[in-house]
Amino acid sequence: MRNTAAQVALAFVGITSGGGADTNSSYHDNAGVLNHVNPLIGTRGFTPNDNGGMIPSVAPPFAMTRWTPQTRENYISQVPYSDHDHRMHGFQATHQPAIWMGESGQVVITPGTGDVVQPAFERRGLSFRKEEERSTAYVYQVLLDADSVADAGWNLTEQWASDTLGSECPPCPGGAGGVPDTVQEGAGGKVRRDAAAEMPSNLLDERVLLNSVAEATTKVYQRAIRVAMSASAHVGHLRFDFEGKDAQRPHVTIQASRLNWTGSVEIDADKSEISGSNSQRQDWALGSDKPDSFRGYFVSRFSEPFTSYGVTQGAKVISGTTKLDGKDVGAYAIFGNATKRVETSRFPTARLLKRQ
Question: Which domain of life is it from (predicted)?
Answer without folding.
Answer: Eukaryota
